[in-house]
Structures are given as structure tokens and as C-alpha cells.
Amino acid sequence: MTESAREGIDITRILDAPRERVFEAWTTPEHFAAWFGGDAEVPLDRVSMDVRPGGDWSLVMVVPGTEMPFHGVYREVVAPERLVLTMKDASAPAGTDGEIVTATFADRGDRTTELVFRQRGGNLTPEQYAAAEDGWEAFFDALVARLASS
């Protein structure tokens, strides 16, 4: 796919943890705050998660001098297999759901999990999708570290 045709993000990672633990890392505020944002701080008291279809979620990433709020709605919750949620930040166009994030967690049978991540929405330029993909890669590096330490 050429960079100019880019309309989303696709990332696959093999994680050294059972899928129940990976799913929990995505759906429990203290775990999510620990890895979402990579090196940025996500204060636990600024994280809210109502993990059910139609439930809201929100958080604030803090980098020196800047707060970046994110929020959305869970569309699908199939524990421990799949999450679909909307994601918006301050730059999201008004009147849209923002981006749609889908995360599937496949049990590989050897206490490892295949995470398949997809982000779509068409709200970002190809350059913004490239930057967002770099961000998610850093987030998933932090997720790997979190799973190794918990």
C-alpha cells in the first residue's frame, strides 16, 4: 500500500501472556493506564472505563506541558477475544465517531497471545496515520513490558 493511499493502521503482535491477561490489560484502568501512552503519563484518576457495549471510556495522557484527552464508546466486548471501540481526541472532526479500533486476542496454545490491532475511520491524513502507528507501536512495547512485570 502506498503512503498516499493509507487509510488506517494494522499491527499484529505476539505477546508472551495468556489472552485473559492481555484482555485484562486492555479493560482494567490500572493496567490500561500503565501501558497506553507509552512513555507518557496516564494518571489513573483520569481513566474511566465502562467495559460493556455502549459503555464510555476516557483518559488523559500527560506529556510535559500538554494534556491530551481521549474518549470513546465500546461497541463490542467479547471477553477475552475481541474489543471494538471508538476513539476520539481533540482533533477529531465534530459529528463523527472518530476512529474505530478493533483488537482481537487469539490464544496460540502456548501461553502466548496474538494481538491483531486495526484502526480505521478515515479521519486522519496518511502522515497522521503513520505517526499514530508509531505511537501504537510504542504503546504495545509498553504493553509487553507491563505483561512481563505483572
From TrEMBL:
Q: Which InterPro entries match?
A: ASHA1/2-like_C, START-like_dom_sf
The UniProt entry, under SUPFAM superfamilies, shows: Bet v1-like
Gene3D superfamilies in the cross-refs: 3.30.530.20
Q: Where is the Activator of Hsp90 ATPase homologue 1/2-like C-terminal domain?
A: 16-147
Q: Taxonomically, which superkingdom?
A: Bacteria
Family annotation (Pfam families): AHSA1
Family membership noted in the UniProt record: Belongs to the AHA1 family.
What is this protein identified as? Uncharacterized conserved protein YndB, AHSA1/START domain
Which species does the entry assign this protein to? Streptomyces atratus
